[in-house]
Specification:
alpha/beta; Aspartate Aminotransferase, domain 1; Aspartate Aminotransferase, domain 2; 2 domains; four-stranded mixed beta sheet; 15 helices; PyrdxlP-dep_Trfase; PyrdxlP-dep_Trfase_major; Putrescine aminotransferase; pyridoxal phosphate; PyrdxlP-dep_Trfase_small
Length: 448
């Protein structure tokens, strides 16, 4: 282990991590094995993976079926380019499958290697869509504050969390961020969007991007009427609506795609993560039939956009098997049922503790918000780092989880694999109670 720790410090620059902390303390944990909802590190300690690693291991760890699907495709043809209209069966079949499960009218797929590439591609595609129709000034992208859409050039700028802009500054221009529905009414959030559109000029706006549920922003679930109003606003102003389903897709919210919870159909959807349950890098953009028709008629010559691994045959084969498992094992339904069970268990936890505020879930995507005074929504002082402390105790108790502390919030996020069962839910709930209780006691607050 010491050897691996030193090699890690010397050679591995970690994503979204503190470089200084890594150098001072080494890797927090070195994982070695995965099985179902569990991960085991190199010391033999086993953890519940309560966030599906990065919101993506939907069918759980250690699924031999996906290894076999990858091996079979690799033996036959591991890779072939999709540039210059070259094609192959796995990508064709996967595009067909995705079209069959997305909301009505979303039938054409552009493949990428992951979520950041998917949202970057969506930005370029919607701008191209308007340009070929003689409207090159429709370039601006509007998204929500606290939103997360990736870390590539455009997707960093679409992201509405300032911390992600600070590393290298804004990479691109023509990106606007409006008020989210978090701590706002639907009317207030919609008015913020309308005001931004009016001030910028509708003739300059290409698209509005939104996650059906804001994931990295703190699992922020919209009011029931929010997306209906958003759809109306986009239609009224002639703006495309892009739903970022990178986290919410493939059963995570108790529906195959998150936006289906609100019966709204976007013009464009982006996806990644759950499409392969993290077993192979893959993402994509799905466009509506009207957009595809415009592209077919007016996109003349080569579309100068694409990635080496767009439509990777092995990735496509893995995705096809992954989606088959989601369907065969009824994991979308299980996500709804176990999400309800987790919500029910955590509501009981709230009654036993003093610092638990809002608890919110849609399927197996949820959060617990910690407050100094939940009755008045009084937050903790940022320097107390309450949510990170709970995460540390959970780690000691054998639960991998994540916190969100943007804008002085203290939020614990949950997204366990969709295969979780009632017994495992009960174990997770008890660990959450114990972790929050310990931190509450450290803060000098007594439980009832």
């Amino acid at each position: 282990m010491n050897s691996l720790t030193e090699l890690d410090k010397k050679h591995f620059i970690h994503p979204t991590s503190s470089i200084q902390e890594q150098q001072q303390k080494g890797a927090k944990v070195i994982m070695e094995e995965g099985d179902g909802i569990y991960l085991t590190d190199i010391t033999g300690k086993t953890y519940i993976d309560a966030v599906s690693s990065l919101w993506n291991v939907n069918i759980g760890h250690g699924r031999v079926e996906l290894a076999e699907a990858a091996a079979q495709q690799m033996k036959k043809m591991a890779f072939s380019s999709a540039f210059s209209t070259f094609s192959h069966e796995p990508a064709i079949r996967l595009a067909e499958k995705i079209a069959s499960i997305t909301p009505e009218g979303l039938n054409a797929v552009f493949f990428t290697s992951g979520g950041s590439e998917s949202n970057d591609s969506a930005v370029k595609l919607v701008r191209h869509y308007w340009k070929i129709q003689g409207k090159p000034n429709k370039r601006k992208i509007i998204s929500l504050k606290r939103s997360y859409h990736g870390v590539a050039a455009a997707s960093t700028s679409v992201t509405g969390i300032p911390e992600f802009w600070g590393m290298a500054g804004h990479m691109m221009t023509d990106f606007l961020h409006v008020d989210t529905h978090y701590n706002n009414t639907t009317e207030q959030a919609v008015q913020s969007l309308c005001q931004a559109i009016e001030e910028a000029g509708p003739e300059t706006i290409a698209a509005f991007f939104a996650e059906p549920v804001q994931g990295a922003g703190g699992v922020i679930i919209p009011p029931e009427d929010y997306f209906t109003r958003i759809r109306e606003v986009c239609d009224a102003y002639g703006i495309l609506f892009v739903a970022d389903e990178v986290i919410t897709g493939f059963g995570r919210t108790g529906k195959m795609f998150g936006i289906e919870n609100w019966d709204v159909i976007p013009d464009v959807m982006t996806f990644a993560k759950g499409v392969t349950s993290g077993y192979f890098p893959l993402g994509g953009v799905v466009v509506s039939d009207p957009i595809h028709e415009v592209l077919k008629k007016k996109s003349v010559g080569t579309l100068f956009h694409g990635f080496t691994y767009s439509g990777h045959p092995t990735a496509a084969a893995v995705a096809l098997k992954n989606i088959a498992i989601i369907e065969e094992e009824r994991l979308v339904e299980n996500s709804k049922q176990m999400g309800d069970a987790l919500l029910h268990g955590l509501k009981k936890v709230k009654k036993r503790l003093e610092i638990v505020g809002d608890i919110r879930f849609v399927g197996l995507l949820g959060a617990v918000e910690l407050m100094q005074n939940p009755a008045t929504n009084k937050p903790f002082s940022s320097n107390l780092q309450v949510a990170p402390k709970v995460i540390e105790v959970l780690h000691e108790l054998g639960v991998v989880c994540r916190s969100v502390t943007y804008d002085h919030t203290n939020i614990i996020c949950f997204a366990p694999p969709l295969i979780i069962n009632q017994m495992q839910v009960d174990t997770l709930v008890e660990a959450i109670y114990e972790a929050i209780l310990q931190v509450q006691q450290q803060l000098g607050i007594k439980a009832e």
